[in-house]
Structures are given as C-alpha cells and as structure tokens.
Amino acid sequence: MASNPGQRVRSAAISRDTNETKIILALNLDGGEFPEETDRRLLQGEEGHATQASKSQIIAINSGIGFLDHMLHALAKHAGWSLALNCKGDLHIDDHHTAEDVCLALGTAFKDALGVPTGLSRFGSAYAPLDEALSRAVVDLSNRPFSVIELGLKREKIGDLSCEMIPHCMQSFAQAARVTMHVDCIRGYNDHHRAESAFKALAVAIRQATSRVAGREGEIPSTKGTLTNKSGIRNSKNSGKPPIDGAVSKSRKPKSKGPPPKPQKSAGNLATLKKKRRVYTEKELGIPALNMITPIGVEKPKGKKKGKVFVDDRESMMTILAMVNADKEGQIESKMMKARQMEEIREARKAEAEKRLEIRKLKLDETKEGLRKKRKRASGNEDREDVKKEAIAGTRPLKIKKKTVSFA
To answer: How would residue 233 be classed by pLDDT, with cut points 50, 70 and 90?
Structure first.
C-alpha cells in the first residue's frame, strides 16, 4: 500500500558489486513505485515465476536460484513491499555467495528505506501455516542485529538452494537490517512447506513491526529515546582515532584556571602524548561471540594482534559487552531448548521401552500358562494308560461297575 500524502516515502535503491556477486536492488516498504535513482535494468528483465505486478505492488526477482526467488517473492508479497532484484553470482562454485549476498543487500536496503524508526509499532509477531507446516516469527526493530532461526530442515537441497543456506539467509538479512529476529517452524514434515511457511510468517511479522501508529508520529518507540547508531557508540569520522591529550579544537578552546601546560619537547616522551588504548583479550570479550556482529568503534585485529579488540572509551566497551552478553544469553536459551527437547525424547523412548517390556512379559506369562496346562493334560493321560495296563496284567484289580436291575 502506497504512503499517504505528507508521509516520507520509505524506499531505497542500492547496488552491491564484489568479485563474487553483482547485485542491483530497489525496495519500497509500503508498495507502489520505486525511487527515482532505481536502475532501470531492474524493470526490463524477462517475466518469470518471481515476477508480479498489481495496483499496490511491483515484484521482479531474479537471483539465479529458483527456490530463493520463490522465498523472496513470498516475503515481499506478504510484507506489502515492492521489490526488484537482480543478481549475477558465482553459481559455478555453489549457491553460498549468491544467497548470502542477496540477503545482505536486501537487509541493507531495508535499513536504508526504514530510516529513523519513529512512529512505528517496532515489534511484530505472526504465525503462518502451509498445509501441515506451521511457523512462528517475532521481529524487533531494535538496531541490535541478532537472530535465532530453527527450521528443522532435513533435506540437503530444495531445488538449487542448499537447506543449510535457508536459515543463513535469514541471519544475513537480520545482520544487515540491524533487527532482532526469532523464526521457528513448529511442525511439518515437508521441507518446502516448512521453509515457505517460515518466510511467510516473517513477512507478516515485519509488516506489523514497520506499520505506522496513528497519533505517535515522530515518537521513538524506546525507553532510551533512540534506536540509532548514535546511542552509546560514536559514529563520527574521527571515532576510530584516539583523542590526543592537550589537543585544542579550532572552534572552541578549553577553559582553564591556571597557565597552559608546557609542551613536552623530549623525543622519548612523544609516545606519552597519545592516549593508550585499553586492549581487551579474547577471553574477556567472550569471542567468538562477536563474529556475527560488527560493532561501531571496534577495529578489526591484524597480524599478531588477532584475537584482540581495540576500543577508544569505556562507553563503547560497555556497549560491546552488552551485545556479547545478549549473544551468549541467546546461545544459552537455544541450548536449554535443545536440552529440553532431548529430555522429552529420552522420556518418550523410556516409556516406549517400558511398554515393550510389559508386552513381552505378558506374552511370556501366557506362554508359561499354556505349557503348564499342556503338561497337566499329558500327565492325566499317562496315569489312565498305566491303570489299564496293570489291570490287564493282573497286577491290579480292574474295577467293574455293577449294573443294577429293577423290577417293577
């Protein structure tokens, strides 16, 4: 559905060009037309199964992977987006780079189109069935990239898309879009149905989270008062450079009561002019928990310093640690869920074994009872034969029943 007059058009057009993939993409979160800067090649492609146009939406997707096109088509349709995407990837290697980069590009376009999340619902949740399959999705426009995806797929591939790449595509989207996402397939035995119901549930949850709330225009749905990168982390051009002690800004000079300090002229003391960075080791930060996140203000370690992270201030450090702890909590919760599932499986197997043992015991008792009766009948027959033989031989008198005759 197109935006109302006076509202910002939530759309974006991007291109992503690497040695592995070349992607052009345009997105409108409210449906309708694409932005003016959209690459016209997107709308000149051949029509396919992932191409659809209506009065409220325009969808044209060609990633080179048929099943991925099918899933993104369902995502765009039920989220209410207009989406055009074209990708030329290194499919001669495998589907990994293409599927991952397409979803990273889609997440980036989503983040750019959404802009500052003011006046929105922020949270969204939905269930979506597809025949026997049922999936659940919960979304938070938190600006904290985190995802838990549990689809339970068993096949190696669906079409030309590896099943292991389907949850990875959702994770890549969440990372680039900077949203928190939980997607679970609750039941279902057909992997195609499980995957498609998951994308449809995600689409409906995103549509709910990005919907505008009447009467809350301009309000940020957060107790912090912000949901952007400027909260707690410096994002300026010089954020990666440590401040120099005694440095004076051109626009404003610091106020001091006494005389200014004399500059250090000794060459040996020049190193002390720079503020030393605090080095946090891998053990302190709980890496590799940071592998899926790229926090602002963090330098990537190089060379022999691999495994260490450099930050400029304590505030940035606390933000990173909070992200790490959130990641750990999610891992713990996932492990607890798996442990509960394993416990339920063990209990079910134990009950089944006990039932089988009870049935076996009943059958054994019946067999024993049958043998006992058979032996008893055989023993009675042998006794009667012995009596007859002894009577014939004269060693035992034969009892003769006397007949009584009555005369009327």
So the answer is: very low
